[in-house]
């Protein structure tokens, strides 16, 4: 994998797409959990919340793909993006410090994801000087 300064992640409970890019090229890596989350139904008068536990191994694998990025944008449609941030805060605070934003984003194609990242970082880099 080529090392680029910028990276954007799109993540849900089933897959993470990690795109590292510069102005001219982009590389997309797919990360899947070893144990995909299945729907858990909660019944009244039972113990437990009815929610699946966070898959720390999955988030660690995603973080591994981000280790060389200088600036990271995390996106996704639901809570997984926040769970990834929480994982980084707890286990990899140096990488968490390089996360510049967390955005809600539905299901883009790889091309749309890279284009979104380029536009986002164009504005963010301008603000940093």
Task: Write structural notes for this entry.
It contains four helices and five strands. It is α/β, with parallel strands linked by helices and 129 residues long. It has helices at 56-66, 80-91, 93-96, 110-128; strands spanning 6-11, 16-21, 26-31, 71-76, 99-104. 26% of the residues are buried. Helices cover 36% and strands 23% of the residues. The two termini are 28 Å apart. The protein has a five-stranded mixed sheet, with helices on both faces.
List the helices and strands and how they pair.
Blueprint: E1 6-11, E2 16-21, E3 26-31, H1 56-66, E4 71-76, H2 80-91, H3 93-96, E5 99-104, H4 110-128
Parallel strand pairs: 1-4, 4-5
Antiparallel strand pairs: 1-2, 2-3
Helix pairs in contact: 1-2
What distinguishing features does this structure have?
36% helix; 4 helices; 5-stranded mixed β-sheet; Nucleotidyltransferase, domain 5; alpha/beta; 129 residues
- Record field, number of beta strands: 5
Which CATH class is shown? Alpha Beta
Instruction: Compute the separation of the termini in Å.
Output: 28 Å
CATH-defined superfamily:
eRF1 domain 2
Instruction: Name the average pLDDT.
Output: 87
Largest sheet: 5 strands, mixed
Give the CATH topology: Nucleotidyltransferase, domain 5
Strand order of the largest sheet: 3-2-1-4-5
The domain tally reads 1
Going by CATH, the architecture would be 2-Layer Sandwich
Q: Nearest-angstrom radius of gyration?
A: 16 Å
Please give a quick description of this structure:
The protein is α/β, with parallel strands linked by helices. The protein has helices spanning 56-66, 80-91, 93-96, 110-128, and strands at residues 6-11, 16-21, 26-31, 71-76, 99-104.
